């Protein structure tokens, strides 16, 4: 005890820390030397202000330890995102409510297009994949090749189809004889390599219960129009739930024991073979047109550089420069049409209330989800055997504040319904406890595409608890008739504060661009 | 089908193993910076591919963690450079003391919700706080991960700390 006291005195004499220094060390406790730490602690014992700072740091540390950023990563492989969030927010949630989700870069249509019968309905998954690849619908044969069957520990993995066009490669697979169990069999990790380079992929996974089949697909973008020499699908570990399969298809395979997940550890390399005919056909259906056209307006300037047409899509490339002084964010071109040399419309795309609506050469209206990579390109339906003559762009979409509504919650009992020029607002309040209220806000519109809401109180934007966007089922031909909606819920402490609700979303802006194609 | 036997010294295999073990941590870091689950998953997927592409260039596998975080943080930066994150920022004015309205989202049952406080930090401050206090990296390591001079890391850390501590006063 005496010695400790003496030690303290020595430290104090040798190195007396100032408050400023201590406050810095408090937040870097794990990085300072033992002597500095001791000296800091000595100071804290004697200085009330620094003691307070130390208790703040400790409280913060304790909050750090109890803060968990919950993110569900377990679904990362199979129920992988179909589209990046930016597009997902705008399209997929709405599209999902139509129970039609299209894989990136694909057109999955069940009706005839361009005079070709695209064939089977979505329930027939396999043929729908075959028939969904691009326009050339002879294509089941021309652009879609077959894969092979592999057996891994009794599980039959069938590479059913490999679809190839110049910039896309898609692989469709099934796991046969699966039972009615969600994600009963999952891959621990998937890697796709093209010429030994790992590729970022998009994909989708699902089950067809009536056919006892699990299925999935992977779609990768190929760079530089280069034909890959070697494509490999690598699977690392497989997780099988109890009763995931009716029976394993090879005798030595084991089912998972009751209540447990069976982990099959290993690395399996599945070669994806692109036969020559497939490559030849993809080359045959590929055309590039140079564009040289510049357009300027208040929000942006754009230079159109190229139009490519291939089996799975046509794509207009552009270099876009957003005007720094503009308060709007340019989201994309929203009304684009490609005409033939003879002046006939050969591909049309309209973005309305969160969805891309396409009109084909037979004037049939379809809804397709594409992964747009705006600002560098705009993706359209593919077309064939037609020389494109010009591109017309009649509008572009911006993300901006569309309006604001003052909310009087003080006298609100139950539900508030308000009709505004932009759309319909609905607010529901539930008292959770003495000082906590749950606020459910919904805004829907047929005129604009609301994507986000900001609830503001005392100049602070409050954080929402839940968020969703949605829409009503699209009825063919009735592009104007659908609405888009955004819903958010908030927890607030008081109804008597002043609240303002800002509606943010997409708005169409008219332009008139005509790009000649030589 | 070709089944490759696991090879102990295969660096890609080691990467796979390391990644599989730590992917839950990586995703949380990405999420805590981006505050968007789908974007965090996209970022992790891209970081994973990028890392695999360049793993052969990594000379010292012991520094794998810092190297991977560097890729991940860069991918996060690229992600929040995208237009939508510009509108997502909700910076708190330094001169404004916490108000009741702010506490309506930061305090529930008198408990400070740290996630919300951190969300209100700017991206560059948030990433430093996450790396320092949530992931336990030293300032020097953070400097390597973020490619920032040590002094900048330190000043950003204290700027962020200053903002955070206001909520605890």
How would you explain this protein's 3D organization?
The complex is a heterodimer of chains A (518) and B (169). Helix content of chain A is 17%, strand content 44%. With 518 residues, chain A is of the alpha+beta class. In chain A, strand 5 and strand 6 form a beta hairpin. In chain A, helix 2 crosses helix 3, helix 2 runs parallel beside helix 4 and helix 3 packs across helix 4. The N and C termini of chain A lie far apart (93 Å). Chain B starts with a strand and ends with a helix. The longest helix of chain B is centred in the N-terminal third of the chain and has 24 residues. Chain B is globular. Chain B is built from nine helices and three strands. Chain B is mainly α and 169 residues long. Chains A and B meet through helix 4, helix 5, strand 2, strand 5 and strand 6 of A and strand 1, helix 1, helix 2, helix 4 and helix 5 of B. Strand 10 of chain A pairs antiparallel with strand 1 of chain B.
